[in-house]
Known about the structure:
Elements: H1 2-24, E1 32-38, H2 56-62, E2 67-73, H3 80-89, H4 108-116, E3 123-127, E4 150-153, H5 165-179, E5 183-188, H6 190-196, H7 200-223, E6 231-236, H8 258-261, E7 262-268, E8 276-278, E9 282-283, H9 286-295
Parallel strand pairs: 1-5, 1-6, 2-8, 2-9, 3-4, 3-5
Antiparallel strand pairs: 2-7, 6-7
Amino acid sequence: xxxxxxxxxxxAIVFVSICGKxxxxxxYKTKHVVIIVMDGARYSETWGDSVHRYIPHIATQMSKxxxxxxxxxxxxxxxxxxxxxxxxxxxxxNINNTGQELPQNPSFMQYWRKLYGSDSTSCWxxxxxxxxxxxANCKDSLWHKNYMPATDCGVNGNGTGYREDSVTYRHTIxxxxxxxxxxxxxxxxxxxxxxxxxxxxxxLKGISSCxxxxxxxxxxxxxxxxxxxxxxxxxxxxxxxHLNGVADGFVSxxxxxxxxxHIFLYAFGPDFKQNMIDKQSRELIDIPATIAExxxxxxxxxxxxxxxxxxx
Length: 312
């Protein structure tokens, strides 16, 4: 009898373990993921503005069918390359911000390409800033120059200079139409670039332009049969900017003040809840963790957590 109870108990443990594993591997409708980065926009001028005057599309049409997290942060290094590295790797890295250093770890795009055996045009890094071409590769010897996404960065690749956001928007739509990639990361530079030039009016205009481009991409994803009903979209910032009274204020960023850390997240997709304001504290490294959950990727180096509260 004791032996029977012993084996029954062990069988119960195995059963619970198997059931738990299956629960973590549930089937999702998401097949494609797009991340849009509104570079260097401060929370106080995006969702933190009570009337959302500079992000009207996100605040009205888009928020009604998606989720806004207003407690979203960059808890690592508040620079452009570091922020993009965090949201594509799930790890905070103190990385050179000039495009002269590769991220240490592979991205969710590299993991995805290896898992599904897809070619480079199935994933794209499309950015106004040329230096962000480094996101395609990594230092890890097992992944270096392997399973890299295609890139369309800056004027003509790393070291060629920045380009206009209007060009990046046009190239994004062209790549979505021609290649139908499953994974895309898009960077729009204007809020950050104009902020650094101490041009408040154009900084605000840059945020509004990003809102417009994001809205058009969101509309496209819902109209194209390849993407419709199977695509998850994230819109966020890589970092914010100094609070007023900190250093030179909105002109710069890079410290640990709340202005540099506090950003926002918009999430939309077939597996997400709708018309919801999420108050749970989350951070950039949680984006790739959530993507990995949706696409059943194993990212052992990631330090992020799945944003389970977003899921239906």
